[in-house]
Amino acid sequence: MDKSQLVRWFGFPTTLIHGDTLVLDRWFWLCRYLPVTRNGERVLDVGCGTGAFTIGAARRGYCAIGLSWDERNQTVALERARLCGINNIEFPIQDVRRLDRREDFKDQFDFVVCLETIEHILDDRKLMRDMAYCLKPGGRLLLTAPNYYYRAITTGDSGPFSTQETGWHVRRGYSVAALQELCRHANLDVEEINSCSGFLSQKVTALGRVIRMPLAVRFALTLPLRLFPPIFDPLISKLTNWPDFSICLVAYKSRWSVGS
Length: 260
Description:
This protein is of the alpha/beta class and 260 residues long. 37% of the residues lie in helices and 18% in strands. Helix 7 packs antiparallel against helix 8. The longest helix is centred in the first third of the chain and has 13 residues, at 21-33. The protein is globular and about 50 Å long.
């Protein structure tokens, strides 16, 4: 079944459950730091995939722009936004490694969102600086990436990781210290570092990956199980000390330059 058909029938929530359970976890995390607004703030989604988080930001009141180099993804994202009745949104084709060439983006966004993208980019230091370049003074970067200390969901999560930007991960992930280091080089202040996607969410995702059946069948089999992670994962994480799969960063761009 065409996934956009599900959006046509059931609306925005289906954009968050097309893939694995980790996508929904990231959305719940994002909502904690992206408050509903009526003030016309702007959001830039760097590496937007098929646009679920960009559409979600627009639904929360933001003027949202989702970036991807993939023309097909951008076409799908725009169609899904239309099906959700969203107008305050754009999906230009853009290589996120070239953000510094977009002079029209300089100091323009209240939030930059970058969820599970930076681990695909070799020069992550440059990407971090470029995202800071796009933020208004007083703006915030909301970023998630694989937790360096995760336990592999399936064997591919253990590597090998690519030495070229082929679309696969170029590194295992990030620790707290690694994110702090990137923020220092980008002149961003770390406001908070936490995590998301616990034990149950990872296990439901693993089940969806290993079932050798058509996508629609796998989706139907795992859908009822998706109810449990948001409810029980916080408790299970405390009891088992199982590491969350994603590390999550909130970083702040100062309103004043140093010495001013």
